[in-house]
Amino acid sequence: MAALKNIPIEEIVEIARKCWLKFKKESIFALYTPFSVCLASGTLKIETFQHFIAQDCYYLKAFAKGYEAAEECTDDDDAKVGLSEMRKNVIKELKMHDTVIQEWDSDMVKQCGVNLATVKYTDFLLATTSGKIEGVKAAATLATPFEKTKLAAYILGAMIPCFRLYAYLGKEMLPFLEGETTHPYKKIIDNYASEGFEELALQNEDWLDKLSVTLTGEELDIIEKLYQEAMKLELEHNLSEDRLVVFFNFDLTCTVVDSSAILAEIAIISAPKKSDEYQREDQVVRMLSADLRSTWEDLSKQYTEEYEQCIDTMLLSEKAESFDYGRLHKALEKLSDFEKRANVRVIESGRMILQDGCNNFFQSILKNEQLNADVHVLSYCWCGDLIRSAFSSGGLDVLNVHVNEFIFEENLSTGEIVNKVECPIDKVQVFSKILSNCSNDKKNLTVHMGDTASDLLCLLQAAIRIVLNPSSSLKRVGNHFGVSFIPLFPGIVEKQKIFAAGEDSSCWNGLSGVLYTVSSRAEIHAFILGS
């Protein structure tokens, strides 16, 4: 193999960065595990931390063997030196771990055996070093130096996710050390968040990139699979002892576009393009497609303008100094009146795409028997069949849909609507009714997900209130009435501190005036379902 230092840097395939960007979403699951939350909040039991260190020793031993195998496989002198240094660093850290364990003088730690999760990863890494990889020859049969170098790259592909993951977790936890002088796990968080640990992760990634430079597309795919499997084995699963009652808005919380726009487009496309000269006298005269589009555009423009005016009117009152649910409820009654008038205008005037991961998320909730979850859709959407159709295409036929319904006669819509959920007040009334009908054999832990001002009342009533990509109107109205917006993970860490201090045994309560924001559905998935 030619000396890697002679290869122009721009020609090096950055497979390490590609893998991290592709599977970074998985790291969110690790961030939301009970272990990470407790570690960040400083409430992790010392026995749990000691067990973690004990398990880490098994990982380090496996890493040392991995580096040794990779060093033997490569014929590049620079790579041999670099991998040898990596192995020496691991052995040094392993000795430090042993010293710490001896200082603890804990029989539990000294006698701690390897747990199942650790076994799965160490066995996986051992299999990789032996060449027991799908589509790859066993190590003993790799005849040429070139073939052996491939195995060195595969080994690193199975190792470096651990370094990159812990560097990420350290940086995410670092803000929780600010102002903390007695945080019991400051040293380990500082270590993972340090420039030194970041440099260690980068060095590993750099060697993977260099050893992968001559690999084919199929061989790079193998590295991706190994990387993903290593990430997967780092994650734990989080279960719930409560009955989970999940509520969510439909339009824009789950969909890419508003359902009303889809319905309007369907009506416009199906409308006649020109007048039918031979129309029977008893046949209903249908609006032409061009006229229907013009009418819809006028309705849309009027709705948008009046909606903003309604929001502005709500904010004319004195801004709340603290959270005021009563005033917020009264203000949203104005929005309720507006929404009802808008529906009347639509009535008098004459394929849905879900967001990425939406179906899989709800499937995971419903299939997880440990969660014992009920899932409810609360929406202004004009057509319940549209929502049911959107979810049934992904195999979700068991969602409880609370929505307005079209009236049909002989499979044709009359254009009239059965008004069930028209406005924020309707939504919160349905929400309350659902909860009142829930069995009391278990505590009902309510989760509501929404994105608009119309979701505010339900969100604030729920125990766990999650806002995904909040609309400007939600933020404006919320801020005006004293609602606070906090990123979900810092909020969970703070809750863990409160819980550990025994200040609030229930921990999650409605009407606290706090909404938790997330940047992706993966955060919600990680929080509710774990890995």
Automatic annotation (TrEMBL):
GO biological process: thiamine metabolic process
SUPFAM superfamilies, alphabetized: HAD-like, Heme oxygenase-like
Pfam families linked: TENA_THI-4
Stored InterPro entries: HAD-like_sf (IPR036412), HAD_sf (IPR023214), Haem_Oase-like_multi-hlx (IPR016084), Thiaminase-2/PQQC (IPR004305), Thiamine_Salvage_TenA (IPR050967)
Superkingdom: Eukaryota
Database matches in Gene3D superfamilies: HAD superfamily/HAD-like (3.40.50.1000), Heme oxygenase-like (1.20.910.10)
GO CC terms, sorted: cytosol
Coiled-coil zones: none
Residue ranges of domain Thiaminase-2/PQQC in the record: 34-235
Name of the protein in its database record: Thiaminase-2/PQQC domain-containing protein
